[in-house]
Write a structure and sequence with these properties.
heterotrimer; A mainly alpha (about 375); B alpha/beta (about 425); C mainly alpha (about 300); B: about 425 residues; alpha/beta; Rossmann fold; 7-stranded mixed β-sheet; 13 helices; C: two-stranded antiparallel sheet; 11 helices
């Protein structure tokens, strides 16, 4: 038995449920954590840090959506609304009342979860696309409330977010280690990606245990799940609560990072963007949510880096006839990339990752 | 053996991390270099000793690109002129414009800002109130100056922002004053129709101020969300209040729809639009006859092609030279004179001998009254607390025969009320 | 009373416009089971194609519409043939995402070709109107209502009496059975995209007519029309029209009366009201007004 363990074979069901299946994967996790800590402290380029920060924030929300949509099969276009709830919770608890970092983040999660619990029961009555579009209504209701509730949201003109970023002696907004000072972007990177890691572990722990199996049963055939004793009410609503709480945390981080939010930002496009992320990353995978967030966040920037060298594309508008500026071309390439990618790999980036892993595991006998 | 390996690996990684971390941080007490005015300009962010980089963050794709593109074109035309004919800032430093697309989204704006800020001396254009507000905190932290491309009153008192033109409030106050005192609308029923957001509120503030100062009341305020699909309800609301003057704060798409509805419902007040309600295409649309009879625009400067104003004549010459394909467009003019203000700031910084961020920020305080040769009112810059934006507004009517579709009725009208308006500082 | 009639007429016209957009969504959903997020892009493309045929090629306006409908229909079919054909049998999620990707491309192709500036459609309707009693009926709105009615009638006849229409229904009902009976599912898919493109053109033209002008913003109507589709049931053309009319009327009437009688609901409640109606209706009828009730088997 001990000898077999090194062959990367899963022999027992309990092994398959383990968080880290092998010593290597545990080691890889540690290495990843070290890199994650070292990376922002060695990159000083604010641009890539800000891209990665937004990507990390998005990843938290995407993990939430993937739990709801990917694992429980409840299509929600209302994710932007919960992000907004989180952002305004950060404004209210963090900004106005100056609660410390862990408390206002928790408050975001609680607010999101509570409102998720109110909306969740809708999912018991509605299915598929109908649920998707009712949750879409939520987005519009949200914008309406955010616009009119001036005292908290600052009205249509938006409000600044001055939530504290201090955790004990560590101030993520102005990190200092010994004799070295780090920028806000660097500090925020650590905060955001720590929360990504916590959310990912949390989500992974849900999906690999009993609730996760129940959720997937609901997704695959809810009537059958109910017949074998899975409480639909409990798991559908539960998925909504957790997903909304994670979305709200992401929204809170978004507000705290950007320091300014308007009601119009929590719109349908944002919801669609999140759907796009989990599809591109891989529906029903936690890791895919993170990959997807990085892809959607960083791909346009990478495209932008290289599209300038394409001949016959100008950086200025004007001229007659068909004429694409490099900025329009960026979006065309981005669109084509999504289309091509999903035509070639409909199961998303996570599937590519798994294939790569399988390839190298069997190397040199891979085919 | 295995254990040893792992420990060693971790140790190596740990050391690497620490080394890397040390590289990425900045020594805390390194910023205490003394900045004294020097004759030779030392290179800094965005300035390599010969060329000055200025950033532009603006929507270059998406629906708002209709504003972002001509505005940027105006900025570039101005700097081409400075580079070609003046030899650059201070006669020797050429200006390079770096453009980034924000798509009018605050988060993309912040990313774009972070992307290029290390390489820019100033931001010559930041389009959109939400984008500007999202970037503002970072501008303050980074000590960078930016020129916002909107006429919000909020910008006047901010040290990191370099506004141009009379704010929206001033446009509406002057328009109201003009109608009451010169247009023969004294005692008529006044109403407003505003987009329900911060931009709409700015116009409403102006009208409210004028109402108090001139002694009229605003009978009805109809509000609508940007992109509203149907305006029957709002027009009927105004119609049933028997409004004779309606101050309009909106954007062209909505203007087109609501004017069409007003014409069809035979609602014929005197409309007065704030500058962004207009686009040149209206003058050739089926709405033109209605607009000619009932619409006035309160905006900056003068009509396109009016060579009696020096700034306009010069601008047309330079368009001939540098961007001959440019169509008449009020946003082009805005970008053009905004670049003029940025040039004034850079000239000042060069004169003071410091193009570093702190140097440019200090130059903001030292700026004086800057003239735009009649393209917009002269702006009295200086320390933000004492800045005085132009108080004049030009009143236009619609005239399809003119190149931009507008003919001036009253050039640079300055009301007593507008002079009284006070600007508050942004928190 | 005049107010009420006027608002109702406006609501009806708005509803007809939504219906024209919704019908495009519905036909694709019915045939292929995909929510087509690129429909707004087709509306945009259709509007600009009509402009191009009319202004650049100098074709008379009334003739330019059918020409543009054919062109846009061909684009739709081509998109299906080149891109979506490859996605048959793949997860619906992936297909939806592909339509989002397509939207990115269409938007940029349109603005790259025709620019960002507002263009005047050059329609003969302008701001002309009829006056009936105290109510003003604008010509554009009358045309919109008429066209929506015509398209719906056309759909009805097509699905009922034409071979292709019946084939489409059969394919929608049970793809495998349809194929087994000799129906070409490929032709059905391509045709549904072609029809969606053609109908989208009508929506684009009507949106840009009557002085409103053509601008890249018109694609957003697709989002506004969303509740109409859901309300009527994703797979029912008649439902799409009825859904559109209900949403249109709700919006204009709410905009007319809410500020007067229920101001506490806040500014701009009319943009939310359709969703409130929608949520209530869906809670009572979870498959929309006309949607087919799904039979769930274990």
């Amino acid at each position: 038995m001990p000898r077999l363990r090194n062959l990367n074979m899963t022999l027992r069901y309990e092994d398959d449920l383990k968080l880290f299946k092998s010593r290597q994967s545990r080691l890889a996790m540690v290495a990843l954590a070290v890199v994650a800590i070292a990376l922002p402290l060695s990159i000083t380029d604010d641009f890539w840090l800000s891209v990665l920060n937004y990507a990390g924030i998005t990843a938290v929300g995407a993990i939430g959506l993937n739990l709801l949509t990917g694992y429980t099969g409840q299509v929600s276009l209302g994710h932007a609304f919960f992000l907004g709830v989180g952002a305004y919770s950060a404004v209210f608890f963090g900004g106005t009342h100056q609660w410390p970092l862990p408390l206002w983040l928790l408050a975001c999660a609680v607010m999101g979860g509570l409102i998720g619990a109110v909306v969740g029961p809708f999912a018991l009555r509605l299915r598929g696309n109908y649920l998707a579009v009712v949750s879409l209504g939520l987005v519009f209701l949200g914008i309406h409330v955010f616009t009119n509730w001036d005292s908290v949201t600052g009205g249509p003109g938006g409000t600044s977010v001055a939530a504290p970023l201090k955790l004990g002696p560590i101030n993520f907004g102005k990190l200092e280690v010994g004799n070295y000072a780090y920028t806000r972007n660097q500090g925020f990177f650590l905060l955001v990606w720590a929360i990504v890691a916590i959310s990912a572990l949390f989500a992974k722990n849900i999906v690999r245990t009993r609730p996760g199996r129940a959720m997937q049963a609901v997704r695959d055939r809810d009537v059958a799940a109910e017949v074998i004793g899975v409480s639909l009410a409990r798991y559908k609503v539960g998925a909504f609560v957790i997903s909304s709480a994670l979305a709200a945390v992401a929204g809170g981080l978004f507000g705290a990072y950007q320091q300014f939010v308007t009601p119009e930002s929590w719109n349908l496009f944002l919801s669609i963007q999140y759907i796009a992320i989990i599809i591109v990353g891989g529906v029903g995978t936690i890791f895919g949510s993170i990959l997807g967030a990085m892809f959607i966040g960083a791909a346009p920037q990478i495209v932008d880096k290289f599209s300038g060298s394409i001949p016959l594309v100008s950086r200025s508008p004007g001229g007659s006839g068909f004429h694409l500026t490099v900025f329009q071309l960026n979006q065309v390439i981005f669109g084509v990339l999504i289309v091509l990618f999903l035509v070639l790999e409909p199961r998303g980036l996570a599937a590519v990752w798994l294939r790569l892993k399988a390839y190298f595991r069997a190397w040199p006998f891979s085919y | 053996m295995k254990r040893n390996n792992r420990v060693r690996l971790l140790a190596v990684l740990g050391v690497l991390a620490l080394v890397a971390a040390a590289c990425g941080g900045t020594k805390k007490d390194s910023s205490s270099s003394t900045t004294t005015a020097k004759k030779t300009l030392s290179p800094g962010p965005g300035f390599d000793g010969t060329t000055i980089h200025v950033g532009v963050i603006t929507p270059l794709t998406g629906p708002v690109a209709v504003i972002g593109n001509p505005l940027t074109s105006g900025t570039e035309t101005w700097f081409k002129y400075i580079n070609e004919e003046k030899g650059g800032i201070g006669g020797k430093y050429k200006v390079v414009v770096d453009k980034e697309d924000s798509q009018y989204k605050p988060d993309l704006g912040v990313q774009a800002y972070n992307k290029i800020k290390a390489n820019e001396v100033v931001f010559a254009q930041l389009l959109g109130t939400p984008v500007t507000k999202a970037v503002l905190q970072q501008l303050r932290a980074d000590q960078i100056v930016a020129a916002p491309a909107s006429l919000d009153a909020d910008w006047v008192r901010d040290k990191n922002l370099l506004p141009v033109g009379g704010p929206y409030e001033i446009q509406m106050i002057n328009a109201a004053d003009y109608l009451v005192n010169e247009g023969g609308f004294k005692g008529k029923t006044m109403c407003t129709m505003i987009q329900d957001d911060a931009y709409g509120q700015s116009g409403q503030r102006g009208v409210d101020f004028a109402a108090k100062d001139l002694g009229f009341t605003v009978k009805t305020t109809a509000k609508y969300a940007a992109g509203n699909p149907d305006f029957t309800a709002q027009i009927q609301q105004l119609k049933s209040s028997a409004c004779e003057v309606v101050f309009l704060v909106g954007t062209p798409s909505d203007t087109a729809k609501l004017m069409g509805t007003a014409a069809q419902l035979q609602f014929v007040p005197q409309w007065v639009g704030q500058s962004p309600t207009w686009t040149g295409a209206f003058a050739k649309s089926p709405l033109a006859p209605y607009l000619q009879a009932h619409f006035m625009l309160a905006a900056e400067g003068t009509e396109w092609g009016d060579t009696s104003v020096k700034g306009m004549a010069d601008m047309l010459d330079r368009i001939q030279k540098y961007t001959p394909s440019q169509q008449p467009d009020i946003y082009f003019v805005f970008g053009y004179y905004q670049a003029r203000a940025v040039t004034a700031l850079l000239e000042k910084a060069v004169e003071l001998g410091d193009l570093s961020r702190a140097g440019v920020l200090a130059a903001v305080d030292k700026m004086q009254k800057t003239s735009f040769d009649g393209l917009t009112g002269d702006y009295e810059y200086g320390p933000p607390g004492t800045r005085n934006p132009p108080r004049q507004t030009t009143i236009y009517k619609v005239d399809p025969a003119k190149p931009g579709g507008l003919a001036k009725v009253k050039y640079e009208y300055t009301s007593a009320s507008a002079k009284k308006y006070e600007f508050k500082s942004l928190p | 009373m005049t107010d009420f009639l006027q608002l109702s007429f406006a609501g009806l016209a708005l509803g007809a416009l939504y219906a024209l957009v919704a019908l495009g969504f519905v036909i694709i959903y019915k045939a292929t089971g995909v929510i087509n997020f690129a429909q707004g892009g087709l509306v945009l493309l259709g509007g600009y194609l009509t402009y191009n045929v009319h202004h650049t090629w100098g074709v008379p306006f009334y003739l330019s519409i059918p020409v543009a409908m054919i062109l846009c229909g061909m684009v739709g079919a081509a998109v299906e043939r080149v891109v979506l054909r490859r996605m048959v049998g793949q997860p619906v999620f992936a297909v939806i995402m592909v339509t989002i990707g397509l939207l990115f491309v269409i938007e940029q192709v349109v603005t790259g070709t025709w620019g960002f500036n507002r263009l005047n459609m050059g329609d003969p309707w302008g701001i002309k109107k009829f006056t009936v009693g105290d109510v003003q009926l604008s010509v554009v709105n009358l045309w919109t209502i008429m066209l929506a009615a015509l398209v719906m009638a056309g759909f009805f006849l097509f699905f009922r009496y034409s071979r292709l229409g019946v084939a489409m229904r059969a394919t929608a009902f049970d793809q495998e059975a349809a194929i087994a009976n000799g129906i070409s599912a490929r032709r059905v898919f391509a045709l549904s995209w072609a029809i969606a493109g053609a109908v989208a053109t009508l929506a684009g033209v009507m949106l840009a007519s009557g002085g409103s002008g053509l601008s890249p913003e018109i694609e957003f109507v697709a989002l506004l029309a969303f509740p109409a589709i859901i309300l009527g049931g994703l797979d029912s053309p008649a439902g799409a029209v009825l859904g559109g009319v209900i949403i249109g009327l709700t919006q204009t009437l709410t905009a007319g009366y809410q500020p007067r009688y229920a101001d506490w609901l806040g500014n701009g409640f009319s943009s939310v009201m359709p969703y409130v109606v929608m949520i209530v209706i869906l809670l009572i009828r979870p498959y929309g007004l006309f949607g087919t009730k799904e039979v769930r088997r274990v």
